[in-house]
Write a structure and sequence with these properties.
The protein is mainly α. The protein has one domain. The protein has eight helices and five strands. 33% of the residues are buried. Strands 2-1-4 form a three-stranded antiparallel beta sheet. Strands 3-5 form a two-stranded parallel ribbon. β1 and β2 form a beta hairpin. Residues 3-183 form the Bacterial sugar transferase domain. GO terms for molecular function: transferase activity. It comes from Methylophilus flavus.
Length: 190
């Protein structure tokens, strides 16, 4: 089975299984804060092409689009959260709309997390290591080994490891470990 077929199959299963959670999350966001429930974040995809990635909005409208680690340095990120923002981030419910990006072909289920358009340091290092050739993923090797808590060079080293060892078996392992980490709420930023 090819990676693309694997992605489509898993995404269709996930949409069916998670649809009630998507509806509830949409309503929670919509009913507890002003603005749209979904927002489209400008991200860097395969070969450094920009694409728009949907997420459930966990931050107040008008919050600057900067990486979590940079926001933690500049301000208290909790001051930007919507009333349900912390909950949907801790449970990763804010990520569910990215299933659309997988179906569309902008993303894969597994791959390096898509950088924000303005994360120049991450983009440059990934390009230097050849990681930009991969489709970004909803989850990835770096996600299960530290997420936003690890420095960029270490994150890119993990992305490079995935690039060099990618297989459907490794993707399956990453998906299972992601599910376990989300259920245990390991390394979840809020």
């Amino acid at each position: 089975m090819s990676k693309r077929l694997f992605d489509i199959f898993l995404t269709m299963l996930a949409i069916v299984a998670l649809f009630p959670f998507m509806i509830v999350t949409y309503l929670l966001v919509k009913l507890t804060s002003k603005g749209p429930a979904l927002y489209w974040s400008k991200r860097v995809g395969s070969c450094n092409r920009l694409f728009l990635m949907p997420k459930f909005r966990s931050m107040r409208t008008g919050t600057p689009q900067i990486a979590t680690h940079l926001m933690n340095q500049q301000a208290n990120p909790n001051s930007f959260l919507t009333p349900v923002g912390s909950f949907i981030r801790k449970t990763s419910l804010d990520e569910l709309p990215q299933l659309w990006s997988v179906l569309k072909g902008d993303m894969s289920v597994v791959g390096p997390r898509p950088a924000l358009f303005n994360q120049d340091d991450l983009i440059a290092l990934r390009t230097e290591k050849g990681v930009q050739t991969l489709k970004p993923g909803i989850t990835g090797w770096a996600q299960i080994n530290g997420r936003d808590e690890i420095p960029i060079p270490q994150k890119v080293a993990l992305d490079t490891h995935y690039l060099q060892h990618q297989s459907l078996w490794l993707d399956f392992k990453i998906i299972l470990l992601t599910i376990l980490k989300v259920l245990r709420r390991d390394n979840i930023s809020h």
